[in-house]
Each structure stands twice: as structure tokens, then as C-alpha cells.
Amino acid sequence: MAPASPDLTLLSDPVAQELLRSTVPARLAYTWPDGTPRVVPIWFHWDGQDVVMGSPADAPKVSAITQNPHVAVTIDGNEWPYHVLLIRGTARVDIIDGVPDEYTAAALRYFGEEAGSAWSAQVAQIMDRMARIAVRPERVTVLDFQTRFPESLARRMGAV
User: Fold this and answer.
1) Exposure of 23 by Cβ count < 10 A (0-12 exposed, 13-18 middle, 19+ buried)?
2) How far lies 18's CA from each of 84, 144, 154, in Å?
3) 119 touches 84 (CB < 8 A)
4) Which class for 114: exposed (0-12), middle (13-18), buried (19 or more C-beta within 10 A)?
5) What is the pLDDT of residue 9?
6) d(Cα 114, Cα 138) in Å, to the nearest integer?
7) Cα 117 from chain centroid (whole Å)
8) Less crowded by CB within 10 Å, the N or C end of the chain?
């Protein structure tokens, strides 16, 4: 069983750490101003406290998250047994000059040193300001589909 937990030590779990270091895009879920849900794939950087993402400052998600900062972030693998990290938290949006350091760090992780540096430099040429979206985890769930399953599945398996 793997219920959502305010126990943030789950972020130190080997499955969580594997996913936080991965090159799988996160899925950022937020609420649109009309109350409907939205989910977008997005690069991320884990700084040890926050999941940090960069975005154009004028992207629609930036104003939506500013209005309602309660978000969810999912990072999951594509290979069986699936590894999943589910985070719910409150996002803080800061509009900064240039490219956030965490965006560059993500580019380096996703593309490697040379291509990541080139990508970040190219983004800096076309965006003088970016949004830095930092999600502070408040609830965490880790699934590994070996010992930790979604609660409804675990219940049917007699693991609860």
C-alpha cells in the first residue's frame, strides 16, 4: 500500500531519488481559472526542497498557477515495474530576468553538457524574463508496483 503521506522522508526513497534524477519530464497539474484541470509535461529540477520548473513568463499556466497555487507533480517511468512519484504542494511563481538557474540545470540533465548549455543560451536570447515555478512538496506518494501499489489495488490484493 502507498497512501499519500505528509511524511516527506519518502522523497529520500531510492525510487523517488531515481525519478528526481531522471530525464523523464514531470507532469504538472494545475487548475485553470474556470475550475477545470490542466496537465502539461515540463522539464524540472529537484533542488532538495522544491521541484523547480521554468516557463515563459507570459505562458497561460503562469497566471493560472499564480491565481491558484495548489498543484500536483507526477514523475513516472515507462518500464515495468512502473516507478511513480506523486507530489502535491503549493507552487510559488517568481518572474525573473533571464533564465532560471534550475532551467539550465534541467537542460544539462536532459541534453548533456554541450547541448544543454547551447539550449539554455538559445533560450536566453529569445526570453528576457521567465517564470520560475517552485513546488514545495506537502504530500508524497511513491509507487514501485513491486512492494507499493495504488491503495485500491493493494486493498484487492489483500495487502492493506
Assistant:
1) exposed
2) 10, 11, 23
3) no
4) exposed
5) 84
6) 35
7) 21
8) C
How many CB atoms are located within 10 Å of the residue 45 CB?
23
Q: What is 8-156's CATH topology?
A: Pnp Oxidase; Chain A (2.30.110)
- Helices 113-126 and 101-111 pack at an angle, to 10 degrees, of 140
Low-confidence ranges of the chain (pLDDT < 70): 1-7, 145-160
**pLDDT for 1:** 43
The whole-angstrom separation of Cα 62 and Cα 33 is: 11
E strands present in the chain: 26-31, 37-42, 45-46, 51-56, 70-76, 84-97, 129-143
Sort 14 into a burial class: Cβ within 10 Å, 0-12 / 13-18 / 19+: exposed
What is the per-residue pLDDT for 125? 96
Instruction: Give the residue extent of every domain in the chain.
Output: 8-156
pTM, 2 dp: 0.87
Cell of 9: 522522508
Q: Which of 99, 4, 98, 109 is nearest to 47 (CA)?
A: 109
